């Protein structure tokens, strides 16, 4: 399963990207995460259906220092051929 996420709320300056990278690595999820200039966090998550559902649920809570208002979820066919989860520069 491949999902594109846009997470909004208090999600920048709270370690969200590093937290998501850690959670994703533990769950063997591939993809990337980055901050957007709009104040949101964007991510691509790739993995087994049940694992991606778990990642989405985790994103709805976020790390302790964050306050997630909304997670927009969409299907994507974006190509990503790496077998790890990385942090991209802000776009």
Describe the protein's architecture and organization.
This protein is an alpha+beta fold and about 90 residues long. Helices cover about 25% and strands about 35% of the residues. The chain has helices at about 15-25, 50-60, and strands at about 1-10, 30-35, 40-45, 65-75, 85. The longest helix is centred in the middle third of the chain and has 13 residues, at about 50-60.
What share of the residues does DSSP label as strand, in percent? Answer: 35-45%
The neighbouring-strand order within the major sheet is 4-1-3-2-5
What would the principal axes of the Cα set say about the shape? globular
Report the span from N to C terminus. 24 Å
Tell me the total number of β-strands.
5
Q: What is the helix fraction of residues, given as a range?
A: 25-40%
| Poorly predicted regions | none
Order of helices and strands: EHEEHEE
Q: Mean of the pLDDT scores? A: 97
Summing up helix and strand content along with how strands pair, one would put the structural category as alpha+beta
Rg result: 12 Å
**Helical stretch tally:** 2
Q: Biggest sheet: strands, sense, closure?
A: 5 strands, mixed
Short synopsis of the structure:
By secondary structure, this protein is of the alpha+beta class.
